[in-house]
Amino acid sequence: MRISELSRRSGVSIPTIKYYLRDGLLPAGRPTAANQAEYDEDHVRRLRLIRSLIGVRGLSVSATKDVLAAVDEQQGDVHLLLGLVLGALPVERSGRPPRRDGAAEPAGAGAAEPAGARDAAEDVAALTAEMGWKTSPNPPAAQVVAETLETMRALGVDYDWRSLVPYAELADRAARLDLDQLPDAGDPLQQAERAVLLTVLLEPALLALRRLAQEHHSALRFGNG
Amino acid sequence: MRISELSRRSGVSIPTIKYYLRDGLLPAGRPTAANQAEYDEDHVRRLRLIRSLIGVRGLSVSATKDVLAAVDEQQGDVHLLLGLVLGALPVERSGRPPRRDGAAEPAGAGAAEPAGARDAAEDVAALTAEMGWKTSPNPPAAQVVAETLETMRALGVDYDWRSLVPYAELADRAARLDLDQLPDAGDPLQQAERAVLLTVLLEPALLALRRLAQEHHSALRFGNG
């Protein structure tokens, strides 16, 4: 197909496609005339993956390049490919920790912080052990869980890893649902794209579904009508 | 207690407490001397709630004021209180929709967009009906789900509301877990604070747990070792 058709099929504008071609993100097409080239389905798929990494997830062009280079190398090893795509995506930290205002800290509070962080890391290790989850060492996601536990405690909420076990069980089922939707054979680019979509794009929707369910169950439990 | 003790207990600095007092976010203490006042447990709790709304969730001071005023009015009606706290919190939209690049759109594609949005809204209505969820009209969370479905389709993924039903079932269980952790009687400020913490602060941790589980199950299914 010509570049105009590639643009139509992928939803990426011609100037942006030309930029990706110059930058090496997208391999060149097969030259057919002085200023023309022929593109194929692989170009469409790769453009969609680039678009989901940059446009949906907000990765930089250079981070996207790294991911794509690694995808090319890992063709055929689905686990490595997924680990790569999942690992390349920094976990969203939408909950900012409470502002720590030096002036308000009692004397000696500064010294207590590393202990809190250490406790939280141990808590996450206990949680993943309880769940039987085997992960890479120090994944960013574990850090997020540790930070949440730390923040909860800083806010005076009595919360430890045991409180998260029922949520971890739901997360375990969600992850199995996610993977059920990946074709376990087939084009690695397509799998990588689908993994990005399912991990990243679904995230706001999953939280939104929880909000809808909270509203419903709150009405059932506490509603007067 | 004096303001210094209030600062220590709440983790909020004295200058910030004075700012909240001037701004009316925090009710004045009981005057004891020319420049001194006595504060109580209600002040500690209210400061913690202010801190979680502003510091954790990133609400503006004026939005926080609105929420607190409403909390004061709704004392005793837990459902209204929670609806308020939950509704006051805009749903995080971490997944940006793919960039729509005018130049790349085929002729007539612009006209198709409203239909896509309408289909997505109908999809969400079908999903909440299937789940038996009763919610307020047009909650922001429903809009997030609709946008996700729309984006999925724009990226060429075959996805409709039925694909989300298993996730909605998990969300339903998560919401019930959340509400189990709210004291169903007691101080409304404390309940409001706990609702904020459980809805907002847990969100990044829930997504992080899913990532950890994804990594584990991906290794089980696709790993070579």
Describe, in plain words, how this protein is organized in 3D.
The structure is a homodimer of 225-residue chains. Chain A has 225 residues and is mainly α. Chain A has two domains: 3-75, Orthogonal Bundle (Multidrug-efflux Transporter Regulator, Chain: A, Domain 2); 112-222, no CATH class. The first copy, chain A, has helices spanning 3-10, 14-23, 41-56, 61-73, 78-87, 109-131, 140-154, 161-180, 188-222, and strands at residues 30-33, 36-38. Chain A has a two-stranded antiparallel sheet. In chain A, α1 packs across α3, α5 (78-87) packs across α9 and α6 (109-131) packs across α8 (161-180). The longest helix of chain A is centred in the C-terminal third of the chain and has 35 residues, at 188-222. The radius of gyration of chain A is 23 Å and the shape is elongated. The termini of chain A are far apart. In chain A, 44% of the residues are buried. The model of chain A is unreliable at 93-113 (pLDDT under 50). The interface between A and B is large, with 103 and 104 residues. Chains A, B: This is MerR family transcriptional regulator. Chains A, B: Residues 104-121 have a biased composition (Low complexity).
